[in-house]
Design goal:
heterodimer, A: mainly beta, Ubiquitin-like (UB roll), 5 strands, globular, B: alpha/beta, Rossmann fold, eight-stranded mixed β-sheet, 11 helices
Chain lengths: 66, 266
Amino acid sequence: MRLKLNGTDLEFQDGITVAGLLKNLEIEPAKVAVEVNLKIIKKQDYQEQILKDGDSIEIVNFVGGG
Amino acid sequence: MDFTEEQLQRYSRHIILPEVGGKGQKKISNAKVFIIGAGGLGCPVGYYLSAAGVGTIALIDNDNVELSNLQRQIAHSMKTLGMNKADSVKKTFEALNSDVNVIAIKDRINNKNILDLIKNYDIIVDGSDNFPTRYLINDACVMLKKPLVSGAILRFEGQVTTILPGEGPCYRCLFEDPPPPGLVPSCQEAGVLGVLPGVIGALQATEVLKLILGKGKPLIGQLLVYDALETNFRKVKIPKNPDCAICGKNPKIKELSDYSQEYCTL
């Protein structure tokens, strides 16, 4: 299936969860916020939230420096 | 109060802009901006706002200028090494523009002093360097309904957003909880491209001026993410969280606590 990840279309396996996507991308879940179709996903829902074809996903890094 | 001949010259490129004009420049002269952190972001934000003629600029910082700061913190210099950073930038900004009343505060912002410190200012700028302070600033601004222009940098990535409490989402709507301590490194630990705070700070200063002038569309409900390596700007829409702990319908946070302690015990 096709997901729009940070504005770019990419192919992923069907039925992948948010947790699975982050694992696939080698991203530490605690270091990011994840938005699916303009909704922020709570960290505790990463395992259950299954992504669908055409979903738009934004992964935003925690950046704290000044 | 009318502009002096010197001020008309100094601000002529502003005054000639239909979006600014004499009226807008007057608004800029009357504005009071509070900048937290006189480091990578505070330097360019304060520098450009001083050049623009913002009437009152307060900066709070408890650190002293070190040689390793000068790679990016452009308002300090060899002459101010060892000096408190707020005092150091005050010298620089006043040398650029004596119209500006620069207030240097040699302290660390905390849950006890923040509300009193910022209450008389129009716009707050976050140029802090740690997460507990970022959450504290966000919560204080939501409580006082103060516009907040937030910027952050690390390595080659920068982020900017404008928070208008009551209108758009806040920092907690996007980042509900701080990351566990130690997981996200600081610039000291992970490095930062020296010019990056210049890009992000200039964007923050632009947001501040737009808010003062009431012109254009501020970055409300959007996080601008800059990737310096790819030269890519991406805008991420941020929804307001109705269950947000500070700006939601039934906020759980009723008063400010010492977030740095909570953070350490997470």
